[in-house]
Amino acid sequence: MCGIIGIVSDKGNLKDRVIEGLKRLEYRGYDSAGIALRTEEGLLIRKKKGKVSQLEEELRNLRISSRAAVGHTRWATHGEPNDPNSHPHTDCRGEITLVHNGIIENYLELKEDLRRKGHRFRSQTDSEVVAHLLEEELKEGGSFMEALGRVVRRLEGSFALVVLNSREDALYIARQDSPLVVGLGDGENFVASDIPAFLSWTNRVVFIENGEMGKLTLSSVEIYDFQGRKRDKKPQIINWSLAQAEKGGYKHFMLKEIHEQAKAISDTVGPRIERDSNSVVMEDLPLSPRKIKDILILACGTSYHAGLVGKFYFEELAGIKTDVDYASEFRYRKPVLSPSTLVIAISQSGETADTIGALRKARSLGGKVLAVCNVVGSSITREADAVLYTHAGPEISVASTKAFTTQLSLLYLLAVYLGREVGKIERKEEARLVSGILSLPSRIERMLREEKERIREIGVDISAYTDALYLGRHLNYPIALEGALKLKEISYIHAEGYPAGEMKHGPIALIDENLPTVFIATESKVLDKVRSNMEEIKSRRGKIISLLSGEHPEIEELSDAVIKVPEVDEYLFPIINIIPLQLIAYYAADFLGHDVDQPRNLAKSVTVE
Ligand code: AGP
Fold first, then answer.
1. Which residue pairs from 552-561 have beta carbons closer than 8 angstroms and sit at least 24 positions apart in sequence?
2. Which region holds residue 12: left if phi is over 0, alpha if psi is between -120 and 50, else beta?
3. C-alpha 468 to ligand 1 mean position (Å)
4. How many angstroms separate the alpha carbon of residue 367 from the centre of ligand 1?
5. pLDDT in the model for residue 382
6. How many angstroms does the Cα of residue 399 sit away from the middle of ligand 1?
7. For residue 495, which of 401, 606, 589 has the smallest C-alpha distance?
8. CA angle 55, 57, 58 (to 5 degrees)
9. What pLDDT is stored for residue 150 in this prediction?
10. What phi and psi values does residue 134 have, to the nearest 5 degrees?
């Protein structure tokens, strides 16, 4: 996700105000920044790779008179972070410029069509296509707003657009699936991805809904639907502080990012699914599917836990032997790889030193490396043979949440794709598996609505203990590990994840009334075994918290607290099950008064060994 802002004002100083607004949006992305200002001589555009502060430094001595401007701070999704790929983008003649947040899923076909009409592109981005589309549509005559309407009706995917042209002090906007909010000022108006960008200047806002577009001038704001029909919008007053506004009203970035997971999963899987046939469309891999004899996953921490789930996906859905190794261990072993080994390096940041080291070792042994990463242009993506990006947006909180669930979603899609390509999954089964993940975000949203209060109470309860155990089997064993990691890394309560079947081999000696056990007891072929493990704990007076799906009164009977998880396809339970465990950790840490987003001793990206 990126941060975009537009200001139309006769109060001057627009360059500095756009820069200030962009700084308030840097939590949405910070790999490049840019600004466009309308002047009497035309559009002045400055943009560069790097943070907003670097752009600010470059513009320090720029004195400019302008009454309409747009700005952008980028989180790259298409095209690596560099100056040409930075926003704003323009049409061929530099008379139209725009900033965009979102993913235009049909940009390649639109770009080819525009190229055939003679348009020349300066970037690899999907966003630039929209500026050239507008240039083309304006040749058809009519107003700028009518041309914008024709353009947005052709776009597929998500977009929040703010457009500026060289002829008028006006901003044109449009929104589909990416946030956009208008700020109503006195003799000036604002538009941005999020309220913090202009909250210093007004707290009167109008939220732009999907399928709406509009025009902002010094003295007016007109909103229409994409068919050009006028919309009456009711202004709202925002009473948040600036700090609250940057977190979208949530107390911490972690809580905000937990609640962004449904959208992050949609943004990650959406562009890789052909909706008519519910089939997977996957980017190029370093090895063609039928040449892959085995898979080796390398990662650290939460990403390693994603890899453990990936093992089940690749072996059970695609029939490909898969190993998972801690990157920090792999790099000092004498592993055996072959040219038909697909190495998958999973990393949210793309900067983890151990994972980079392991990737380099794997390549030196002949492995072909596919990176699964959330940061475009990061070190790991530049050293891998190919990259699959998650589209979780910037993950600010040190504790990884939405990166994890988007990694799982991407590994699931990749396994379905490989399964189909090697003939293990029939088309009908592929469509069923794809339909399952498409319906997952709405199940997640429902669970968050219905279970959040109960989960909060459990989190507060568990904060009273010094130790906790997380147990799961099969696909949910890695989720037990990840749930334990979340609790220990932000609440500092010692927590251990274990395969439930392993309890009788030693750990059950720990059980008494002072040790809560979180059981992942959602629907699965091993649920009976999980229930037996619960009975073993209960008979030793252990306190049991269960994640449960479907109707299992016998399991409810064994539980001191139950969190209901909506029914999903068996392979999707790991993705939905981790979310209550993230929230348990969050509420425990918050109740204990810890710095949830910046836990002690930890860094967001471990760039040292
Ligand atoms: C998870 O909550 C931690 N922040 C940590 O384990 C993290 O997953 C690990 O350092 C790997 O980071 P990466 O995904 O950026 O490579």
1. 552/521, 552/527, 555/521, 555/527, 555/531, 558/531, 558/534, 559/519, 559/534, 561/454, 561/457, 561/458, 561/461
2. left
3. 21
4. 23
5. 87
6. 8
7. 589
8. 65
9. 98
10. -60, -45
**Which of 324, 606, 607, 608 maximizes ligand 1 atoms within 8 Å of its Cβ, making it the mutation to test the pocket?**
606
What is the model's pLDDT at position 239?
Answer: 77
Cα atoms found within 13 Å of the Cα of residue 49, Cβ hemisphere only: 10
Three-state DSSP class for 215? Answer: strand
Max CA distance (Å), the chain: 81
> Which residues contact residue 320 at a Cβ distance below 8 angstroms, ignoring those fewer than 6 apart?
292, 293, 294, 295, 314, 418, 422
CA–centroid distance, residue 356 to ligand 1 (Å): 13
- Name the 3-class secondary structure at 284: coil
DSSP secondary structure, 196-213, as one string: GGTTTT--EEEEPPTTEE
Q: How far is the CA of 348 from the centre of ligand 1 (A)?
A: 7
The three-class DSSP label of residue 396 is: coil
| Per-residue pLDDT at 573 | 98
What's the rounded Cα separation, in Å, for the pair 562 and 557? 10
Q: SS3 string of 317-337? A: HCCCEEEEEEHHHHCCCCCCC
Q: For ligand 1, what atom is nearest to the CA of residue 355?
A: 16
CA-proximal residue: ligand 1, atom 16 (nearest): 347
pLDDT by residue (tens digit) across 276-317? 999 999 999 999 999 999 999 999 999 999 999 999 999 999
Where the chain has pLDDT below 50, the residues are none
Q: What is the pLDDT of residue 548?
A: 98
- Please list every protein residue whose CB sits less than 6 Å from any atom of ligand 1: 300-303, 347-349, 352, 355, 398-400, 489, 605-606
Quick one: pLDDT at residue 238?
84
For 354-394, the pLDDT digits (tens) are 999 999 999 999 999 999 999 887 889 989 999 999 999 88
Ligand 1: atom nearest CA of 401 is: 2
pLDDT of residue 247: 85
Give the nearest ligand 1 atom to 302 CA: 8
* Site of tokens 């309409």: 68
Residue of 349, 400, 490 to test ligand 1 pocket, by largest number of atoms within 8 Å of CB: 400
Burial 195-223 (b: 16+ CB within 10 A, else e): bbbbbebbbebbebeebbbbbbbbeebeb
Report how far residue 342's alpha carbon sits from residue 411's, in angstroms, rounded to the nearest whole number: 13
- Nearest partner of 257 among 608, 591, 585, judged by Cα: 585
Partners of residue 186 on adjacent β-strands:
none
pLDDT given for residue 1 in this prediction:
76
Buried b / exposed e along 35-69 (16+ C-beta atoms within 10 A) = bbbbeeeebbbbbbbbbbeebbeebeeeebebbbb
Report how far residue 289's alpha carbon sits from residue 526's, in angstroms, rounded to the nearest whole number: 30
- Which atom of ligand 1 is nearest the CA belonging to 605? 15
Q: Which residue type occupies 390?
A: T
Residue nearest to atom 8 of ligand 1 (CA): 302
Residues catalogued as catalytic: 2, 604
